[in-house]
Design a protein that fits this description.
Layout lengths: L16 H27 L5 H9 L18 H14 L1 H21 L2 H13 L4 E4 L15 E5 L2 E12 L12 E11 L2 E10 L5 E6 L11 E12 L3 E2 L5 H37 L1 E2 L2 E2 L4 H27 L8 H26 L10 H11 L6 H14 L6
């Protein structure tokens, strides 16, 4: 006996009409606003602040922040969509967005006090203020517990001393203007022989806080400003402390998952654009009287790229669908998606250059910029080696995670 069954389709990449609308909005915005400026700002190593503020007008700078604080109240999957679509056009611009909206704004929304959220979130969600997060130091990267920046209590204030390095949005212009609000990690003592790391909100007018040097001549991500930050007896009020002394490891772990997920989503955007470019070129360019797309080696570049891209994209969006922004719970897969997607994007962009030949080696055809930008994704937000260590450790502790 036959029975008619109506099957409901599920779109992993746009599971709701709201997600689909966000993607459509971003695609329109990147086409009209982001793409026309991408080449220029990459070549001149400048951050397009007016463009960045337009993201605030669209309600995207606080994409994961509750609406009561001026945010969009969206989930991790919506954040992945924004990062994929911006990186399809301009990964450098997207990195500045990630540093603001994920590293600082989402971190504050999840870990801050009610007073801190009410004071700062409306300003950073609207784009009135630009934010950054400062963790890495000149001598300290992955080894967070070894950081040398300190904060000491002095009456009703904290006094911060140290230097931070490689800080995205650390400066907003060529004059060294500091970010309006920086989330700073600093050592506040030791407990049981282990460093206590605490989190502070530093405003640009707090005395003793200044921009050191802007990092120039980067391989990629040139449209996002990177700088050294200097804290020389920087005095902040007691209310600048997020949570309690020693809470920073909790703050980091809560925020690392969304950071790594969105970096992986950036890789998806880079790969998608690279495949688009190489496929169009291979179909239009002829050699020996035939389109390039008719040659087996070119077919291999395109087909392998597409399959790897789709596999990584599925992993990224499935991880995003399961992610709870308010608690740590899926660290292994947030490491996993970044481990897989970032190298995939670099390899796909590399194939794009190979397919285009000499044209792929110049800026007009975009893939060389995408290739340069992709490399940072294997380093920032945790190196490939750190992800490999974390995943191996977790699997050895709990082999059932495989099922």
């Amino acid at each position: 006996m036959s029975q008619n069954v109506e099957l409901k389709t599920f779109d992993l990449f746009n599971p709701t009409s709201e997600h689909a609308m966000i993607r459509e909005t971003l695609q329109s915005f990147t086409s009209s606003e982001v793409e026309p400026q991408a080449h220029e700002y990459d070549r001149t190593e400048r951050f397009n602040l007016p463009l960045f503020r337009k993201l605030g007008e669209l309600g995207l700078l606080g994409i994961t922040v509750p609406e009561e604080y001026g945010g969009a109240g969206q989930d991790a999957l919506a954040a992945a969509i924004v990062h994929e679509e911006l990186s399809y056009s301009d990964p450098g611009c997207c990195l500045a967005y990630l540093a603001h909206s994920m590293l600082m704004v989402n971190n504050l929304a999840v870990n801050g006090s009610e007073e801190q959220k009410k004071k700062y979130l409306p300003k950073v969600c609207s784009g009135e203020w630009v934010g950054a997060m400062a963790m890495s130091e000149p001598n300290i990267g992955t080894d967070v517990m070894g950081m040398e920046t300190t904060a000491k209590k002095d009456g009703d204030s904290w006094v911060i001393n140290g230097r931070k390095m490689w800080i995205t949005n650390g400066t907003l212009d060529e004059d060294g203007t500091a970010a309006d609000l920086v989330l700073v990690y600093a050592k506040t003592g030791e407990k049981n022989g282990r460093a206590q790391i605490s989190t502070f909100l530093v405003e640009k007018f707090h005395p003793g806080y200044q921009v050191g040097q802007k990092i120039r001549d980067k391989l990629g991500m040139r449209a996002s400003n990177t700088a050294e930050l200097v804290f020389d007896n920087c005095r902040v009020p007691a209310s600048a402390l997020i949570g309690h002394e020693g809470d920073s490891m909790l703050h980091m772990m809560r925020n690392l998952e969304i950071e790594r997920l969105t970096l992986a989503a950036m890789a998806i955007g880079i790969a998608r654009r690279s495949i688009d470019i190489m496929t169009r070129y291979a179909n239009e360019r002829a050699a020996f009287g035939k389109p390039l797309a008719s040659f087996g080696q070119i077919q291999r570049y395109i087909a392998d790229s597409y399959a790897e891209y789709r596999a990584a994209k599925t992993y990224v969006y499935e991880t995003a669908r399961k992610m709870d922004l308010n608690r740590e719970g899926n660290r292994m897969d947030s490491d996993g998606v970044k481990l897989v997607a970032t190298t995939m994007a670099k390899n796909v962009a590399d194939r794009g250059i190979q397919v285009l030949g000499g044209y792929g080696y110049v800026g007009e055809y975009v893939v060389e910029r995408l290739w340069r930008d992709a490399k940072l994704l294997e380093i920032g937000g945790g190196t490939l080696e750190a992800h490999q260590k974390n995943i191996t450790r977790d699997l050895c502790k709990n082999p059932s995670l495989l099922t």
